[in-house]
Design a protein that fits this description.
transmembrane helix, Heat Shock Protein 90, alpha/beta, histidine kinase, elongated, about 15% strand, membrane, CheY-like_superfamily
């Protein structure tokens, strides 16, 4: 019974105590003026006591909503309170002459209104509050007509009619109000339902994107890896050209796929920002080096200017910082036909007195018209319609970059002059990037590149349902002189792990019969020689929550498809450990 409506009523009753006592004081005082006697004083004292009881009753109910007796005591309290209150109106009606009667009618109507506003939500309480006032209003004129025969009974009859009209209006207003509340509730329920539906649809869209990305990235991974392998074989010039075209086109497609995935992750609020200690100069130089061949081909000079006394290490999400700088530099190179591109990294105090770390990418390219400057940061927007025709692109790069910058607590701004060049500036809050004593690397360890295997060749278990992928991985590890065993699904991997010891396991995620997560968990928990064997997850599924699932299942590291041959080899070398049980066998 102690529901939200009751709580609302109880609260307003407790809160309204002073108002009721104040009104009672006014009523009693006026009665004293109209007809001085002891009764208004007695009445006020009685009303005061009744209100204290009423107040304690509702206060206790609010304090402990579960432990109150039955509903009757609240109904009686309300009825008693109104019965006592309007008794003073009866006094002014009987003893106050004409003015007293007018005052009585006004004060009872006011009380009726007050009770209605306070109790309209619960019918039983409303009746308990209304009935005593209504009875006074009806009976005072009627009784007077009977006991004062000389009185103008027509006037009294009119007062009665007025009472009915007033009560009828009050009932109508309550009904209307309740109907509006009901409509409002229905509308609210409908809106909530629609929101839930939209959220479900959005979740389904994200999921759909994850699945589609996985499905497209898997064959793309095979294409890219095969092109990489082909590059390592002896080729004549024409063949080299064709392979380059193959891998370039695959990389463009992978880039587009990654962009679409990123924007949908950001929009679904699922993009999370990591923090790791990185060498700032290395990162910026690395991105610059990626673009310098392209710039050289176009005869554009690419300069890096990094402030001298910047700390060598900062805490940041290296992947996302690299992605932003890569996008800005890719645009600068794309839209500059001749001249200079300068990448500057420096500290700058901002308007609010804090220091920012700024990354400027300034070019002497085609520039952007003033009215386009904000538009280019929206998804799928380009400065003008001819851009795609001339330069290609999707208009996603800047939208993703700005959102990533904002997720890192910063922003991207642009200054540009049409025909003269542009300067894009990424600014990040400098203090948050500084290393502190507690900034220990978290999660997976960084891979030490080119770390030599200490104790000779290893045995690797390659688990993937795609034959092409298994072959590609085996070809990559071949130059290391490693031995490999293959499994087509998780179940086969679990069975193999019972009897044979491996130094490292490369595990795909989505496979028929048994997926990678389940297989990883079983290998970790079963008796056998591979309980502690490092497991590296290899997957085209780049969604964040999948990575978490892998880590929880017990994998040591995570590699995204398409396989980067160097990263794969470095990871395998760094993560594999000679299995003592294999060495002993
Ligand atoms: P995309 O380059 O794939 O079209 P972006 O979001 O990276 O998408 O850029 C959006 C648009 O902003 C570009 O199409 C181009 O019109 C404009 N733009 C971005 N960078 C530059 C630049 N450095 N110089 C001139 N225009 C630029």
């Amino acid at each position: 019974m102690r529901d939200a409506i009751f709580i609302g009523i109880a609260k307003s009753r407790v809160k309204g105590l002073r108002t009721r006592l104040g009104l009672a004081g006014f009523l009693g005082g006026t009665a004293m003026l109209l007809e001085p006697s002891i009764w208004p004083v007695v009445w006020f004292l009685v009303y005061f006591v009744s209100q204290i009881i009423d107040n304690n009753l509702f206060k206790a109910a609010l304090k402990n909503p579960k432990k109150q007796g039955d509903e009757a005591k609240f109904i009686i309290a309300i009825a008693l309170s109104t019965l006592i209150f309007s008794a003073m109106s009866a006094y002014t009606w009987i003893f106050g002459g004409e003015e007293g009667r007018i005052f009585a009618v006004i004060s009872i109507c006011g009380a009726l209104l007050h009770v209605t506003l306070q109790l309209y939500n619960r019918r039983t309480y409303l009746f308990a509050g209304l009935l005593p006032h209504a009875l006074y209003l009806l009976f005072l004129p009627s009784v007077t007509a009977v006991i004062e025969p000389g009185h103008n009974s027509f006037t009294l009859f009119i007062v009665n009619v007025g009472t009915f009209v007033f009560l009828g209006n009050l009932a109508w207003a309550v009904r209307q109000n309740n109907q509006s509340l009901l409509d409002l509730k229905v509308a609210k329920d409908e809106a909530q339902e629609a929101r839930k539906l939209a959220e479900n649809e959005s979740a389904a869209k994200t999921n759909f994107l994850a699945v589609i990305t996985h499905e497209i990235r898997t064959p793309m991974n095979a294409v890219l890896s095969a092109a990489n392998l082909l590059k390592r074989t002896p080729l004549n010039d024409e063949q080299s050209d064709h392979v380059r075209m193959l891998s370039n086109a695959s990389e463009v497609l992978m880039g587009l796929l990654n962009d679409v995935l990123d924007i949908s992750k950001i929009e679904a609020g699922k993009m999370s920002i990591e923090r790791a200690a990185i060498d700032l100069k290395d990162l910026v130089t690395g991105v610059g080096q990626l673009w310098s061949p392209q710039a050289q081909i176009k005869n554009v000079r690419l300069l890096l200017e990094i402030e001298d006394d910047l700390p060598s290490q900062i805490m940041i999400d290296p992947l996302r910082l690299r992605q932003i700088l890569f996008n800005l530099l890719s645009n600068a190179v794309k839209f500059t036909a001749k001249g200079l591109i300068i990448v500057r990294v420096y500290r700058l105090p901002n308007a609010s007195g804090h220091t920012e770390l700024r990354f400027d990418v300034e070019d002497q390219g085609i520039g952007i018209a003033g009215d386009q400057l904000e538009r280019i940061f929206s998804s799928f927007e380009q400065a003008d319609a001819g851009t795609t025709r001339r330069y290609g692109g999707t208009g996603l790069g800047l939208a993703i970059s700005r959102k990533l910058a904002q997720l890192m607590g910063g922003d991207i701004s642009v200054r540009s002059s049409l025909g003269h060049g542009s300067c894009f500036s990424l600014s990040l809050p400098y203090d948050s990037l500084l290393l502190t004593a507690i900034d220990m690397p978290e999660g997976f360890d960084a891979v030490e590149a080119d770390e030599a295997p200490a104790e000779g060749p290893r045995t690797i278990l390659i688990v993937d349902d795609h034959e092409v992928n298994r072959r590609i991985v085996s070809l990559f590890v071949q130059p290391l002189g490693w031995r490999w065993v293959m499994a087509e699904n998780g179940q086969q991997a679990v069975d193999l792990c019972r009897s044979e010891a491996f130094d490292i396991i490369l595990m795909d995620m989505q496979m028929p019969v048994m997926g990678g997560i389940e297989a990883t968990k079983l290998i970790r928990n079963q008796d056998g020689p591979n309980q502690d064997t490092p497991i590296v997850a290899l997957t085209a599924n780049a969604m964040e929550h999948h990575q978490k699932a892998w880590a929880e299942a017990g994998v040591e590291d995570f590699l995204a498809k398409p396989i980067d041959p160097d990263l794969l080899i470095n990871t395998l070398i760094a993560k594999s450990r000679i299995n003592p049980l294999r060495a002993a066998a």
